[in-house]
């Protein structure tokens, strides 16, 4: 590529995927630093006696991938464990949809514009953010 190539150098458009990944990391760091610095703060969102569906599905995935290690005497993840985790995925997805719907409602209630919400969600237009909310609200609304 030459010095006049518009796809490289300081005047090239940023890679949207890379920019989004950087924002995701910054968002995780910000929220952890502000609201989860102590063990007590981190425990606010977990059930002390029974893990939530998203927690056990994630745990099975981490154990299968080798990202989490089994404790001594803990059984290996087997096919029934994987089937159980897969069984919980629709429930986890539904909970996440409800969480997103509620967060979007609260964001609007606090005066955020659809443009600001679209930016946070990584969507290109305010209309896309509003349509996403409408789809979620329809899926998660009262039956």
Short key terms for the protein model shown above:
143 residues, mainly alpha, 6 helices, 64% helix, 0% strand
Task: Give a brief rundown of this model.
With 143 residues, the chain is mainly α.
Compressed to H and E, one letter per element, the order equals HHHHHH
Rg from alpha-carbon coordinates: 20 Å
How many beta strands in the DSSP annotation?
Answer: 0
Give the fraction of residues assigned to helices: 55-70%
Count of DSSP H/I helices = 6
Low-pLDDT segments: none
Question: Roughly what fraction of the amino acids lie in strands?
Answer: under 5%
What structural class do the secondary elements suggest?
A: mainly alpha
Basic shape: extended
Mean pLDDT: 89
* Biggest sheet features: none
Write the layout of secondary structure elements.
Elements: H1 16-35, H2 39-43, H3 53-65, H4 79-109, H5 114-121, H6 126-140
Helix pairs in contact: 3-4, 4-6, 5-6
Describe this protein's structure.
- By secondary structure, this protein is mainly α.
- 64% of the residues lie in helices and 0% in strands.
- The protein has 6 helices and no strands.
- The protein has helices at 16-35, 39-43, 53-65, 79-109, 114-121, 126-140.
- α4 (79-109) packs across α6 (126-140) and α5 crosses α6 (126-140).
- The longest helix is centred in the middle third of the chain and has 31 residues, at 79-109.
- It starts with 15 loop residues before the first helix and ends with a helix.
């Amino acid at each position: 590529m030459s010095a006049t190539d518009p796809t490289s150098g300081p005047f090239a458009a940023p890679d949207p995927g890379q920019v989004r990944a950087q924002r995701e990391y910054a968002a995780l760091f910000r929220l952890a630093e502000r609201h989860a610095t102590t063990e007590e703060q981190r425990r606010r969102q977990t059930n002390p006696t029974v893990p939530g569906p998203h927690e056990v599905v994630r745990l099975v995935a981490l154990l299968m991938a080798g990202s989490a290690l089994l404790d001594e005497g803990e059984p290996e993840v087997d096919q029934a464990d994987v089937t159980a985790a897969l069984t919980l995925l629709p429930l986890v997805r539904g909970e996440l949809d409800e969480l997103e719907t509620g967060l979007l409602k609260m964001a609007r209630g606090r005066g955020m514009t659809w443009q600001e919400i679209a930016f946070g969600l990584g969507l290109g237009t305010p209309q896309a953010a509003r349509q996403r909310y409408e789809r979620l609200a329809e899926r998660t609304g009262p039956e």
